[in-house]
């Protein structure tokens, strides 16, 4: 048993007869009243997001997890296929338990959280950022840069990302997987 002070990003807990992964949290100590922890949790079975507040010292049931490195192979409808990089076993996961499937390209190595009780996969953690090639975007208009202007661009995985006007087709860009935002252009 853990308490609300043990809450951190990525922690898996059992709540309302389901398993949730903490995606965001904030410890709040108001001037009046007791402290509490405001959380955003994602169900690992349905993919639904839930906002919840735990009072200070509240007992939570954490789920023991192991992390394994898996390589993304391909998708088939809503099923995504992964291969364990150690023993080459393969698993299939539903799209709902993936955080940002639109930013995953074939061959990408991700971390899969596995429940130690029944060896079921709970969630997939992407690397902090990925480098993807821009496949299509409008050309930037010269002199249109008075502010931080952006334009939509389609990357090689099919995701649409807003990029600065100087990005062209064929450029490789670094994308923050947590926010799904452009970070920088990558030189080759």
UniProtKB/TrEMBL annotation:
Pathway(s) annotated for this protein in UniProt: Protein biosynthesis; polypeptide chain elongation
Keywords per UniProt: Cytoplasm, Elongation factor, Protein biosynthesis
Elongation factor P C-terminal domain location: 130-185
This protein's GO CC annotations: cytosol
SUPFAM superfamilies from the UniProt entry: Nucleic acid-binding proteins, Translation proteins SH3-like domain
SMART domains noted in UniProt: EFP, Elong-fact-P_C
Gene3D superfamilies: 2.30.30.30, Nucleic acid-binding proteins
Listed PROSITE patterns: EFP (PS01275)
Keyword Protein biosynthesis: yes
Name the UniProt record assigns to this protein: Elongation factor P
Species of origin: Aequorivita lipolytica
């Amino acid at each position: 048993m853990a308490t609300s002070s043990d809450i951190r990003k990525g922690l898996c807990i059992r709540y309302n007869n389901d398993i949730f992964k903490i995606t965001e949290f904030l410890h709040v100590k108001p001037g009046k009243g007791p402290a509490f922890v405001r959380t955003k949790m994602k169900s690992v079975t349905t993919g639904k997001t839930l906002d919840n507040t735990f009072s200070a010292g509240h007992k939570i049931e954490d789920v023991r997890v192991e992390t394994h490195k898996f390589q993304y192979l391909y998708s088939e409808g809503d099923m995504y296929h992964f291969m364990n990089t150690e023993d080459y076993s393969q698993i299939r996961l539903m799209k709902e338990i993936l955080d940002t499937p639109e930013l995953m390209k074939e061959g990408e190595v991700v971390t899969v959280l596995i429940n130690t009780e029944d060896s079921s996969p709970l969630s997939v953690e992407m690397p902090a950022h990925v480098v993807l090639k821009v496949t299509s975007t409008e050309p930037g208009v010269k002199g249109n840069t008075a502010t931080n202007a952006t334009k939509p661009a389609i990357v090689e995985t099919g995701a649409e990302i807003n990029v600065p006007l100087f990005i062209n087709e064929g450029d490789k860009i670094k994308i923050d997987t947590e926010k799904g935002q452009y970070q920088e252009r990558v030189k080759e």
